[in-house]
Amino acid sequence: MSNSDKQSEGSVTFLRWFRGLIVIAIVIWLANLVYQNAINPEAEHPFKLGLDLAGGSHLVYVADTSKVDPLEVTELMSALRDVIERRVNIFGVSEPIVQVESSSFVSDEPTNRLVVELPGVTDVSQAVAEIGRTPLLEFKLYSEELAQQQVALGGLESISAATSTTTETELATSTESDEINIAAIANLPFEDTGLTGRYLETASLEFAGSNSGRLANEPLVNVRFTKEGADLFAEITRANVGEQLGIFLDGELLSAPVINEAITGGTAIISGGFTAEEARELARNLSFGALPVAIELQSTQTVGATLGAEVLDKGVKAGSFGVVLIIIFMTLWYRLPGLVAGVALLSYVTIMLSLFQLIPVTLTAAGLAGFVLSLGMAVDANVLVFERMKEEYTKGSSSREAAATGFKRAWTAIRDGNVTSLLSAIILFWFGTSMVKGFALVFGIGVLVSMFSALVITRTLLLMLPDVKKAQATSLSKLLASGINK
Fold it and tell me: Which parts of the chain sit beneath pLDDT 70?
């Protein structure tokens, strides 16, 4: 062999070792990062545990969609879910799960439920209070017809007196009106207009000016509607000039100004004798949580932190035992290449855990099951490659030639097997419930990472090994041959 050939071979060997050491260094760095994030309670990227592992509260609400057009129910429930998610996130709840369920096949009337899971919140009363703080904003018109029906049916005699009092009271528009006596009309009949918090865009705190006809610096809440809500608000005020428009929050009448003219600006003022703090809190709650439909708590369930810790402990033990047994089997069966596959498997575990922290993935018991299952998938590609290597090594190829050819010949089988597994994960994630989605997500990520660990990490580490042939009698050759040519 000439000097130039030796130099070229030395450069290639150095490059192989350099690549291998870089891969090992990156894996060690990731492992340290995962460890530091796991032991540090204030880490920037900790593990996100689901309700069944961290403990927490499981709440089920029933939405009142009886007065909603059936064609709009799906859209309203989606909006309701988004609102609740924003609300519980504001309160600092970690990784809440809010989902919509329908049960129209087991009852005469469709039932729409909202399932809320709050990991880490084990006090049910606290969880209910946080969800319950979400207000329902409604705008309703006073109905003279309903009032007369109440009188005809023997309703309250005070309705007539209260009505005459309110009709004699001169009020400004709904955006700049004086408030009528709420106590006097609290029992008056109002009918829905269809304008609710569903159409609310923003709400902000304001203070009345000295020329507004209100008390100077009176705290007010200015609400602005979406384009659709503004059009509906303009239509309502245009068609009901001279009528009272009641503003209700969670069924409680806040104000009932008289509409003097059509209002096309898409804004309204809510005033109810608020303090500045009350008005600020109301504006915040409306901005981040005006419910499009009313909800009622149906059931609650608490998962204790102790039970969650036990499930997590068993899942970690199962994963640890699985990794150890796989490494032992691969080492005994394939010897040195099997040991390399074991190192690649540890790299796979490290990469998966780092992805759980950085994405982040909310880990549930089903997700842990998917992770443990994916451990076997992670070495499946290695088995295919090693079997092809055995065939090439038996034909007389050197170890590196056998490795290169083995990866090339095994690629189609690896590709087809992993693509079918990935398609299964996608289908489960698309159509499954929250528990099934947790399993599918972890399993799908595992399939992708396992392909990377087999085709990149295992290949890089194998090419670091000395290039030997079957006829060579060195101890390293015997060790390699006993694994490859078993």
Answer: 1-10, 87, 89-95, 103-110, 122, 126, 130, 132-135, 147, 150-188, 209-216, 250, 272, 285, 287-290, 305-308, 433-435, 468-486
Rounded to a whole number of angstroms, the CA Rg of the chain reads: 34
Q: Which CATH number does 11-47+304-484 carry?
A: 1.20.1640.10
Residue 404 has a pLDDT of: 84
Cα 173 to Cα 170: distance, rounded to the nearest angstrom: 10
Domain locations in the chain? 11-47+304-484, 56-134+299-303, 137-290
199-230: pLDDT as tens digits: 888 888 888 765 555 666 788 888 888 889 89
What's the Cα-to-Cα distance from 66 to each of 110, 247, 273, 354, 377, rounded to whole Å?
9, 21, 33, 47, 49
Q: Using DSSP, how many helices (H) and how many strands (E) does the chain show?
A: 16, 13
pLDDT digits (tens, 9 = 90+) for 353-366: 999 888 878 787 88
> pTM of the entire structure?
0.58
| Domain 137-290 of CATH type 3.40.50.720 | no
| Residues recorded for the chain | 486
Cα distances from 71 to residues 76, 79, 107, in angstroms, run: 10, 14, 19
Q: Which amino acid is at 102?
A: S
Q: Residues 6 or more apart from 213 whose CB is under 8 A from it?
A: 172, 176, 177, 178
The DSSP code sequence of 296-331 is EEEEEEEE-HHHHHHHHHHHHHHHHHHHHHHHHHHH
* Interacting residues of 26 by C-beta distance below 8 A, sequence separation 6+: none
Q: Name the residue among 306, 337, 323, 303 with its Cα closest to residue 410.
A: 337
